Amino acid sequence: MDKNIVKRNDLLSQKVIKGLASRNMSGYYAHDRQEAVKLALELIPEGSTVTMGGGMSVHEIGLVEALKDGNYDFIDRDAIEDKRAAMLAAYDADFFLSGANAITEDGVLVNIDGNANRVSAIAQGPKKVIFIVGMNKVCSDTDGAMKRARNVAAPVNAQRFGLNTPCSRTGSCMDCKSPDTICCQFLITRYSKHPGRIHVILVNDTLGF
Known about the structure:
Helix content: 25-40%
Distance between the termini: 18 Å
Low-confidence stretches: none
CATH superfamily: NagB/RpiA/CoA transferase-like
CATH architecture: 3-Layer(aba) Sandwich
CATH topology: Rossmann fold
Strand content: 15-25%
Number of domains: 1
Shape: globular
Strand order of the largest sheet: 1-10-7-4-2-3
Number of helices: 8
CATH class: Alpha Beta
């Protein structure tokens, strides 16, 4: 990665972390994917029950493999036939892992969901939530974060899942009501009512969509 981008990310991450702290959330900065995994495992005691939504960033840094190889009770919904049971188990987990569609420079998290299992678990249920967020997800404000979620993350995910939505064909949000839409639930996390519940690991890398 270009040294000037690294310097910019180093500086910007501190602003985001300060913003998260003002919102009763904890922020961390990892200089690479390996450090991100190390930080996450330091937050998760061995023996903990851990599950996740469909976050690509969690997979990309290698955290899923580390949890499967370690002494953790990892609920892998992809390996469970009863998907509903796997989703419901998330609400009673010790840790829920997630990516973010976008985050603002002052620490507001924006996420869009189709089935709502991810955003509902972020909002309530699991004892703690750990976000893995590439610095490519940082936006100047909430409006920019929402636009990123709708015009970047949503079209790419619609294409990834092979969905028949306008955005999968045009590459940008058409504010559709298609039966295949994945923009069903919008969650803006601007403050955590519970101290120590939400942790955000910012990664000096391009992760997810």
